[in-house]
Design brief:
Strand content: 15-25%
Strand order of the largest sheet: 3-2-1-4-13-14-15-16
Largest sheet: 8 strands, mixed
Bound molecules: zinc ion
Radius of gyration: 20 Å
Structural class: alpha/beta
Number of helices: 12
Helix content: 25-40%
Amino acid sequence: MILRNATLASGKRHDIDLKDGRIAALLPPSNDGPSLVVLPPLVDGHIHLDKTLLGLPWVPNRAEGNAVSDRIAAERRVRAERSVPETVTGANLVKQVVASGTLHMRTHVDVDNQLGLQNLKAILEVREQFRDLVTIEIVAFPQSGILRSPGTAELLDEAATSGADLIGGLDPVGIDGDLAGHLDPVFAIAGKHGKGIDIHLHDGGEAGLAQIEAIAERTVAGGLQGKVAVSHAFALGSVPIDMARRTADCLARAGIAIMSHGPGAATMPPLIMLAEHGVQVFAGSDNIRDAWSPFGNGDMLERAMLIGYRGNYRRDEELAFALDLVTGNAAKVLGLQDYGLKVGGPADLVVVEAGTVAEAVASRPHRKMVIKAGRVVARDGVLTG
Ligand SMILES: [Zn+2]
């Protein structure tokens, strides 16, 4: 297959020659005709495949308040009433995101003393079902806390030998009320099994910042540089910028990545500043049509747009930065070895109806084709079968 007249992220035009599932050559463009943007696959650095209710009749949000603990309680009620298994809804979501161009993702999967490892097992099945289409990295996520949900530390330990790739965490102070009591088991289990860590941290202000610094300290002490991420890190956007800069240096030294989904109401970390300080930054969808959020669709180009909108990005370089959050940067955090639109790279591509990368981010464009290993797997936003 040859994709003619493709505009790459660099702005250069090429004919892309695909052979045996690889990019065989980037040739000069064969004509001056119309051109479409061709991107490497989109990467969702933070999704919750087990939580989504996608494909079910609309489920109204019934959280009684906006605190994280209110939403945990609301989700437990939804969970108790749902009759369709997570294997079905998770598969619905995987199909939807692949059709929009996502071929790699990191999903958090709830582990607590009510669920045990049931959701992990469901999402392992989904991963197996779609193994030829997408790579799925799994974080064992203590959604109900560790101390608040006795037995969860043991379950996280078991998850590490049952298919989870990383150990998660959640607001050590805000939820468990005990920084060391939460972080000690997370780091001990990750260290014991040689796993990475990805911690949800909603706690804001200086209290949140102190937790980020505690995570950095433990990361360095455990030799886990490059293997730890903090998701959300709202605190970095809620303190004076000089204070956030000092924490950025600390994150860079510890090799900790920061994930944002471009939060609507909470403060967003200053992603460009973090990147300038050498911090790896990336993006994810977070909640999609679940007990936490009625919104979301898993489209990572739309996510890049939302982050740009939230961050007041205007210039083309800023929009290109937003694209990096959902492509190359996220691929690095996920440790994808075989990624990127380059000669010899995998023939995994997304053809987008836009003239430039900036337009592709700004305009939520139509997806003409998604190509996996040289094969068209989705056309015009629909899986080919
Ligand atoms: Zn999340």
